[in-house]
Design goal:
single chain
Length: 477
């Protein structure tokens, strides 16, 4: 394609020749002056006129050359595009030819396969025809053999033998019928046996459950009469640093303010008292010192005054912190008592009180002011009451001991059912409900699975009663 460029250039050059020669040159002035007076130099005006004409001619030539160059570049670009397109078309044509060759080969193979298939189908059809013919011949032979056998059997067997064979056939048929009936009866018996086995299994499970219930009921007196374990004490040694002991937090609220966020057992020293171990429940906005927890009935809360004064149980399970320790927490001022409850349907309830507890000289009299909660005030009848146990009766019931009758130490007034330290029924004997039986009012009654009582200190002198229930309830551990 590049060879075709040169003829085109010659044509363009030839076309440009008339342009160069088409313009008439300015006539040279012929002076008629005498030879003796003619100057050897042209006039200045003629020179200027000639110069202007030459400049215009040069400018025209330059413009023509630039225009021609642009046209030649356009032609070259179009030729390049044409060359590329031609090359791509040639590549596609070669690919099409290759595909055509492959299609031809495939067509040849398919034709051969088609011929083979036709040949096989012909053979199969011929074989099928031969098989059908052979089948017809065999059927005819079988029919002939059956006729011959019937004729031979009639000639060999007597009428008595035929009758005997017929009677034997009837006997066999009757036996088959009897066997079928027996199989049906056996199947029905198996179904009944399976049904009886299912009933027996259900009865065994009920018996096992009743036995376990009875064992638990029989063991309840042992559980209720057992002595609760002592809480983990605060251990001191000769290497204990006095400064470290003095720097112990006064309660779990102070521990929370120091940056602790993990619930667990910590050493505290409230109001300058002797240090002791306590379980701290870390909430989102404060730390609370847990003074009581019930969750499975593994600890007997029907204990003596000494046990309730010093504490008992297991910090990882059920426990009572102890009246002495609770009093040391309450004397710091601005204390809030938080009661959290959960029933067997996992419904949670709470109540909060402004809280203060007198010392041992007043038998740990409790003072409560209701702040918030989602239950009727269950402790309104207990504020101002002294603590009572089965061996120290401080209630207002003159005829009997509430702690002895209802089991467990509490701030009893005239008994009643509001006792979170009462018996924990782990099973349901004779239709009684399980857990802690608690009746905060005249109409409502609860069977509680979990209880937790905690104390935390607040910096402000008063609390708003509009605290949200979601943040109040917290999580019972």
């Amino acid at each position: 394609m590049k060879r075709t460029i040169f003829p085109i250039l010659f044509v363009l050059a030839a076309a440009c020749v008339p342009v160069f020669y088409g313009k008439e040159e300015p006539p040279v002035p012929q002076l008629d002056a005498p030879a003796e007076t003619r100057s050897r130099f042209a006039a200045l005006d003629d020179v200027r006129l000639l110069a202007n004409g030459l400049l215009q001619l040069g400018q025209s030539l330059r413009e023509f050359v630039q225009k021609t160059k642009g046209q030649i570049n356009d032609i070259l670009q179009k030729l390049n595009i044409f060359d590329q397109s031609f090359y791509q078309l040639s590549v596609l044509a070669s690919e099409i030819k290759e595909d055509e060759e492959e299609l031809k080969k495939t067509t040849v193979v398919l034709k051969a396969s088609n011929e083979e298939i036709k040949y096989l189908s012909v053979e199969i059809s011929s074989k099928m025809n031969r098989i059908l013919q052979e089948k017809i011949q065999l059927q005819g032979k079988v029919e002939g053999l059956e006729k011959k056998l019937n004729s031979l059997s009639q000639g060999l067997m007597t009428s008595e033998q035929v009758a005997e064979i017929t009677s034997l056939k009837e006997v066999i048929r009757s036996q088959e019928h009897s066997i079928t009936e027996l199989l049906k009866a056996v199947s029905a018996q198996n179904d009944q046996i399976d049904h009886q086995r299912t009933k027996i299994k259900i009865l065994e499970e009920k018996f096992t459950a009743k036995t376990a219930t009875q064992d638990t009921i029989d063991r309840m007196p042992e559980i209720f009469n057992s002595e609760a374990p002592t809480l983990t004490p605060y251990l001191t040694s000769s290497s204990t640093n006095t400064t470290a002991t003095m720097n112990l937090p006064s309660d779990c609220s102070k521990l929370f303010n120091r940056g602790e966020r993990v619930s667990g057992v910590y050493a505290i020293r409230p109001n300058g008292s002797e240090p002791f171990m306590a379980f701290c429940n870390m909430h989102k906005d404060h730390g609370a010192t847990v003074i009581q927890r019930r969750k499975d009935g593994t600890v007997n809360f029907d204990q003596t005054w000494d046990k309730y004064e010093n504490g008992f149980g297991d910090f990882q399970g059920e426990f009572w912190l102890g009246l002495r320790k609770i009093h040391s927490l309450a004397t710091q001022g601005n204390s809030v008592l938080h009661i959290q409850l959960e029933d067997w349907k996992q419904a949670r309830h709470f109540n909060k009180y402004r809280f203060y507890l007198d010392g041992p000289e007043s038998n740990y009299t409790i003072h409560l002011t209701h702040l918030s909660g989602d239950l009727a005030d269950p402790m309104s009848n207990h504020t101002g009451m002294m603590f009572s146990t089965k061996d120290r009766d401080n209630d207002n019931h003159q005829d009997s001991s509430c702690a002895h009758n209802y089991a467990g130490g509490w701030w009893f007034n005239a008994c009643g059912d509001t006792n979170l330290n009462g018996r924990y029924l782990r099973m349901r004997p004779k239709g009684r409900r399980r857990g802690i039986q608690w009746k905060p009012g005249r109409k409502s009654s609860y069977s509680l699975r979990l209880t937790e009582i905690s104390v935390h200190h607040v910096a402000i002198p008063s609390l708003s009663s509009s605290t949200s229930a979601s943040s109040e309830a917290g999580v019972i551990h």
